[in-house]
Amino acid sequence: MKKSIILFLFCLFTQQINSQIPSHGITQNANDLILTNQNGEIPALILVDKDFDESTLFKNNIKLETKAGDVWSVLVPKEQLSILSQISGIKAIEPALRINATQMKMDSVRKVMNVERVHNGLANGLPQNFTGKGVIVGIVDIGFDYKHPAFYALDSTTYRVSRVWQQNHDEGTPPSGYDYGSELVGKDEIFTDLDLNGTHGTHVAGIAAGSGIGSPNLKYQGHAPDAELVFVSLKYFNNSLPGSAMSDYLIANPAIIDAYNYIFNYAKSVGKPAVINLSWGMHTGPHDGTSLFDLATNNLIGEGLILVGAAGNEGTNPMHFEAKLKGDTVRTIVIENERFSYPKEEVYLDMWGSGNSVFSVSAHLIDTTGSIVYESPYFSSTKNGTDTRSFDTDSGKFSIIVFTNSYYVPNGKPNIRLLLTNPDPARYNIGLSITSPYSDIHAWNSGGIYRYTSGRFVNQYNQINFSSTYKAGNTSYTVGENGGTSKSVITAGAFTAKNIYYGIYNDTLNDQGYSAIGNITPFSSRGPTADGRIKPDILAPGMDVAAPIFLREYPGWAWNKLVAITEFNSDTFAYGVFSGTSMASPQVTGTVALMLQANPKLTSFQIKQILAKTAIMDDKTGAVPNNNAGWGKVNTYEAVKESYRILSAGNTLSQPHKITAYPNPTSDEVTVQSEHKPIEQIEVYSITGQLIYRKTYTEPLQTIKVSLAELHTGIYILKVNKQIIRLLVD
After folding, report:
1. Fewer Cβ neighbours under 10 Å: the N or C end of the chain?
2. What is the CATH number of the domain that holds 716?
3. Does the pLDDT value for residue 9 go beyond 70?
């Protein structure tokens, strides 16, 4: 691959590192866009040739952190950054620049998933009781209360957290092979550290594998209460950039890959299977499985090494925008959802075109009358690099920072990222104009640049309706990067298993009835991925899930969510309820831990197959698979039972009979053929699960032609004798 198409972020530095970029009377120093750690090093992901000589890194004082196949995590001295692009064998680079976004983002729950039948397996037709024993559950998150009784075994004395990597604390010794953070091994070392970053990690870990100690009758026990635990408290900020939209991509992204590698390497060293949960996601990236992060996950998984992630909580937020352009122009308005909570509105956008295409975007400022008071020039994806513009208003500057890349190496797509600041959201809205000779555009609005908020695309606001000339966004394609788009990660969406809980703090029965029992939660992000794959993969409970919380870090606004308080080892601990796909993901992680106990050699592909095969489909999920429910709701009992069955059958999944459909893609007709068993029924569903066609056959036919002439271009689901084929109609 020519260096001329190396990742666009690096183009900023292959020009002149110290150059000043003029823009309407202001300057933007390129050095201001570089993120470094306390040692003056820049975290980066690189894509290398298979024969790449890693000694060239060491010769240039570049530290290698993680090898995930051909995607490597490195630390580059700031002064060596320009040299990195000159090293032969490096095909793509993603250095940490100041542009790029995430949000962190049991009682009845266990019953709905049939977890208790697995814990009491001997009484329910299983060969043993499965509780996660012999399996490592890794949690990559923030806000761990290491001393919580939920992380002890049921004997209340055996501590189950074997090690912690505190990536943000550099007072101790980093893990072997890494140059940052502190590794803590064993209870005595772990208890010397405090992770004062909220309560998210405590809650997530307790759902996946908490013992339930301190809750009434172990009521809030997790799925795998006997599993060994490994925690990584994630590095998601540094001294120059706080936890925010940009920092998740720049800082957390490489750190997550390092965390995965650390946990899997430990699991391999002790000969145990491992499943890692990441209830964290973002919307910087192509959403098609080709980001360097997603490629790295493909290289890290293996037999008994599984990744699970949260789909995201954007199911009701039209933060995705799409347009098919053929020489025309489309307009939209971009909003930070929390725009009136801050003095200035921030909007962080990531936009992608079709492979080998070009597109351009212009930003404009609209006043309350609907008039455009400023419109920037068009920024084209053909020009690799960065540009800045600003416009003076009575309230301050309307500022634009643009990063353009003509060719993202892994997928050949053009990419434009915009950082927009509106000085007065009460007086102005930000509009975009997008044009292309020929390109399918996908864009994601992450909201704040330097803070955790959210954003959306609209065509009317402040009493002004722009629907005749502007296009709104949608909630499709809102499954996030990190937890959602990788081909290797099992992605969890959320449904409602409980919507009422008793709060002990206010002595009140709290009713969250906006999502009925059994429904897919409104907030659960929807698929597909940008390359048309079904996501999420599976649904698990994500509404009002009770689990351990870090009482010291518990926010005051959430006291009404406390459901249990207990004394343990002369300290006070608590359980509380939260909602989100962050809570659904560890439900799946805990289920996978039980599956791995039953069959330690399962691969990610096999686990996806088992979860799909055993999933619950009902009137709430609709016909599966679809991009709201994936393959349905997790059935932990049946998944564990099937995992054990295929182990005893030689570790292979049974296939009832082979079904083929051709041609695929097709435009007017498809031939369906069954290799063994006669075809009994054919159904065609839309990607959203709507039944379009159904026919039942009583005579023994093994080859049938189905007319598709009435269908519009798009992706459909062909269901033949209960087997699923994805069908593309062009």
Report:
1. C
2. 2.60.40.3080
3. no
pLDDT tens figures, 383-418: 899 999 999 999 999 999 999 999 999 999 999 999
Interval 522-572: pLDDT, tens? 999 999 999 999 999 999 999 999 999 999 998 888 888 999 999 999 999
CATH number of the domain enclosing 378? 2.60.120.1290
How many angstroms separate the CA atoms of 132 and 643, rounded? 14
596 with 690, same domain?
no
CA angle 543, 547, 549 (to 5 degrees): 115
Question: Do 358 and 409 belong to one domain?
Answer: yes
What's at 367, amino acid-wise?
D
Distance CA 408, CA 405 (A): 7
Q: Quick one: 330 and 430 in the same domain?
A: yes
Average pLDDT over residues 457-468: 82
Mean predicted confidence (pLDDT) in 593-603: 97
* Matching residue, tokens 């992680």: 589
Q: Domain range spanning residue 679?
A: 659-729
**Within 13 A of 309's CA, how many CA atoms are on the CB side?**
27
Helix axes 253-270, 292-300, angle to 10 degrees: 0
- Asked, for residue 653, whether it belongs to a domain, the answer is no
Q: Which residues, at least 6 apart from 317, have a Cβ–Cβ distance to it below 8 Å?
A: 337, 454, 456, 475, 478
Q: In whole angstroms, what is the distance from residue 561 CA to residue 591 CA?
A: 25
Do 614 and 693 lie in one domain? The reply is no
Residue where a domain terminates, one of 648, 671, 690: 648
Give SS3 for 413: strand
560: in domain: yes
Pick from 184-198, 382-396, 456-470: least confident: 456-470
Residues 351 and 213 in one domain: no
Q: Choose among 197, 259, 224: nearest CA to 553.
A: 197
Query: With contact defined as beta carbons under 8 Å apart, do 681 and 704 qualify?
Result: no
Which of 97, 123, 149 terminates a domain? The answer is 97
- Same domain? For 560 and 428 the reply is no
Cβ-Cβ contacts under 8 Å for 659 (sequence gap 6 or more): 672, 673, 674, 675, 720, 721, 723, 725
Cβ density class 637-662: b for 16+ within 10 Å, e for less: bbbbbbbbebeeeeeeeeeeeebebe
Taking alpha carbons only, the member of 441, 211, 426, 414 closest to residue 336 is 426
Residue type at 496 in one-letter notation: T
Q: What is the pLDDT of residue 96?
A: 65
DSSP line for 363-411: EEEEETTS-EEEEPPPEETTS-EEEEEEEEETTEEEEEEEEEEEEETTT
Total structural domains in the chain? 4
* Confidence check: pLDDT of 32 > 70: no
Span 76-120, pLDDT tens digits: 988 887 788 789 899 888 876 544 434 344 556 777 888 999 999
Residues 6+ apart with CB under 8 A from 507: none
Statement to judge: residues 141 and 218 lie in one domain? yes
Within a domain: 338: yes
Total-model pTM? 0.82
Same structural domain, 364 and 250: no
